[in-house]
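W.,

You were right to be curious about this one. When I first looked at the sequence I had no strong expectations either way, so I just let the prediction run and decided to look at it fresh. Below is the sequence, 391 residues in total, followed by the output.
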Amino acid sequence: MARRAGKILKGLSALAVGALVLLLMLYMGGVLTVNKIGPADKAGDGKLPAVPPLTAAAAVQTVNESYEAIGTVRPRTESTVEAQISARVEEVLVKPGQMVTRGATLVILDDREFRSRLARAEEGLAAAKARREQAIQGLAAARARLTQSEAAHNRIRAYVREEAATLQDMEKAEAAFLQAQAGARQAEDAIREAEAGIKKAQNFIEEARISLGYTKIAAHEDGQVAKRIVEPGDVAMPGKPLLVLQTINSLRLEAIISEAHIQKVAPGTRLKGTIEALSLSFDATVEELIPAGDPNTRTFLVKVALPSDARIFPGMFGRVIVPLGEIKVVTVPRNAITKVGQLDTVIVKTADTWKRVLVKTGRNWADRVEVLSGLTGYETVAVSGESRDVR
């Protein structure tokens, strides 16, 4: 008996669970509701008028489709100012936002070491010139000795032929002559070495002057200081940014375009652009298209020219509008759309009555709204208020 009672209880439990599941499905499907407000009740009393006072026609229109590429205003050129030498920063003469002209001094570095190098190089040049003067004097003396020894050598040779001098005298004269020749050659070599020393010293001076010139860092073009990275007391070195300059009077809008629409754009293409913060619309000409796309986002960078406007600053948000061609869309008057909760609906005329139809809306054109789904474009719809499409 206990076993049979257990089976009965299990059967009843399964039946109860099934009934609960069925009730839950009916409730979620809207069949069973308890104090639930329907979409029609949210919009009003849920009753549709027998004949709406105003009606309009849903229409199939041909419109120009476009793609909006978002972008950022950037300077045409942006350059980083760096030091050519390693030295301590003495002064920074500019601040962010300051306008500078080509050649204006921006940063001054400690120049004591480089002035010392220049002084040593100039001393080396003076010493090299002194050595050259000594070598010139030595060459003159060596040539004089060579002339004397050559004359003595020739005279002794004549004496030997006349037997007025011995062979020993001849050997001494030849030795003196050869020694004088060697001395002249050494004097000439000394002059060449002195000349090379002068040239080397001059190169040292030129290098020292160039390094000394690097202690004053100047702007290489007109522009505006965008960033100040260095402060007095910092150590400047090659490769370390000090300032960032940008061309404020020559800006471009750099926009990202999907690979699906990149064939519509090329250098020279005329487009429309907007700067929303300024409510500014302008004609944009594509100046540059970066041919290498981003493999992660499948997008390409396009740079378009901006009009000369003092209100435009780097970093502003903008859009570039790329025309894609004509398409057909279904539209209804804006006042034909009725919100029911979070849903868009339209009251549509059927054969003998009116019914509420759920629609999905898209873009807006003047006083009409694109209907992406729910209508075919040949229906009569109810409108509220005044509409020039009313009939």
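Here's what jumped out at me. The chain has four domains: 39-66+327-382, 68-76+248-324, 78-107+218-246, 112-213. And, maybe more interesting for your project: Residues 1-6, 26-46, 386-391 have pLDDT under 50 and may be disordered.

Coffee later to discuss?

I.
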